[in-house]
Amino acid sequence: MQRLSTLLFGFGAFFFLIRALSKEEFGAWALFLSISAIVEMGKNGLVQNGLVKFLAADEEKKEAQIITASLVLNLLLSLLVIVGLILLAPLMARWLNTPILEGMLYCYTLNVVLLIPFSQLSFIQQANYDFKGIFFANLIRQGLFFLFVLAIFFFSLPYQLEWLILVQGAGILLGSGVAYLFAGKYVFLHRRVSWPWVHQLFHYGKYVFGTNISSMLMKSADQLMLGILAGPAAVAMFNVAARATNFVEVPSFTMASIVFPKSAAKGQKEGPAAIKRLYEKSVGAIHAVLLPVVLVVLLFPELVIFIIAGKEYLESALLLQVVVIYCLFIPFLRQFGTIMDSVGKPQINFWLICMLAVINITLNYFFISAYGVMGAAFATLVAYCIGFITNQLILYRLFRISTFQVVKELGSFYRQGYKLLLSRFTGRQWVEKKQ
């Protein structure tokens, strides 16, 4: 529900913003979102997985020391991010051919501060398998921003892109208050900072931090390289196609949030066989949800683009068909990272994602230079194909995970759904015939 609400509010804001902003303004906004996503994913990687893993497996009742150490790590990293943004904002604005980006990044430093309690409370709830507070906190965070965008669109209010960022900050602040109402019972702080725990969390999270940064560079390389080589208007065209495939994030992120603490516990108790079953079933289930949507997008790309962005962006239809194909590889890669992190091998995922990020950036440079905006889509497709082949070979060697078994689980998911529907509509008569 949390992932779905984030998708709906995010898509709703996109739907109205793309009609209210010029292509150059929307391209600048898309570039800002890419940079802020890299920052947040990087921070979360260093703090989240270590906190969730050690709290979920904590049998010595040291949660106060772990949570306090994690909070200190979050504070230190946020300070480092703020300094980096202030120093690099002018350079990034020039590099991406988007002067307005400088002021937007300065405004975003406030959000980095506000995200400290918001993210910390969310991670603690995840470690305790309690997702209700995460849902309501994100509902407030995303909902407030969506309402502001609606006001701009329907009442033709004057706006600046920096105001959008400040409204995001207000949503984070209110969401933090809601999160504390749910997570307060899990928050235990120690009077002294346990620096050995800070050290342990940092060294566990450093690979996940690097992985998340590389993953976001992998995901955003096409748009960032388009900004450098073609300008914000080209970014806007590509972002429309990328936005149309955001449905991939819902089942993938949702499953990752559940699989990570489960695999950390099961891997410790039951060994590789449990990890194998968990990966194959989770990836199979994700694809069972994705495939029908992918087929619709492949068959009717112009209709999809017209509905979400309007006739001005119809030339993005071919882009969308390429982008939606490589979206099928994303669940394999995301669940690979989840499994590697949960079994204490984050360095494997780190090096793989780093390699893919470098490949993707390099391919995008040459493909965009040769083929323009379409080159970005084909470059990323090739990079994801390489990533898929590599991670499947690694998983087979470590856990005997089979791609063929994932396909079988996909078929099993459809069979179970078919049986469930039949039993709903025909009741006991179907059951008796089956017997």
Give your account of this protein's structure:
- With 435 residues, this protein is an all-alpha fold.
- The protein has one domain (2-426).
- It is 86% helix and 0% strand.
- The chain has 17 helices and no strands.
- The chain has helices at residues 2-20, 23-56, 63-95, 101-127, 132-155, 161-183, 195-229, 232-243, 249-270, 272-299, 301-309, 317-326, 330-342, 346-371, 373-399, 403-426, 428-434.
- Helix 8 crosses helix 12 (317-326) and helix 14 runs antiparallel to helix 15.
- The longest helix has 35 residues, at 195-229.
- The radius of gyration is 22 Å and the shape is globular.
- The two termini are 37 Å apart.
Sequence stretches where pLDDT stays below 50 over 5 or more residues: 429-435
- Total DSSP helices: 17
Could you tell me the strand content as a percent range?
under 5%
Helix content class: over 70%
Query: C-alpha Rg, in Å?
Result: 22 Å
| Whole-number tally of structural domains | 1
Q: How many β strands by DSSP?
A: 0
Mean pLDDT: 84
Shape: globular
- Structure classification: mainly alpha
How many angstroms separate the termini? 37 Å
Taken in chain order, the helices and strands follow as HHHHHHHHHHHHHHHHH
Strand count, sense and closure of the main sheet?
Answer: none
Characteristics of this structure?
17 helices, 435 residues
Give me the secondary-structure topology.
Blueprint: H1 2-20, H2 23-56, H3 63-95, H4 101-127, H5 132-155, H6 161-183, H7 195-229, H8 232-243, H9 249-270, H10 272-299, H11 301-309, H12 317-326, H13 330-342, H14 346-371, H15 373-399, H16 403-426, H17 428-434
Helix pairs in contact: 1-5, 1-9, 2-3, 2-4, 2-7, 2-8, 2-9, 3-4, 3-7, 4-5, 4-6, 5-6, 7-8, 7-14, 7-15, 8-12, 9-10, 9-13, 10-13, 10-16, 11-12, 12-15, 13-14, 13-15, 14-15
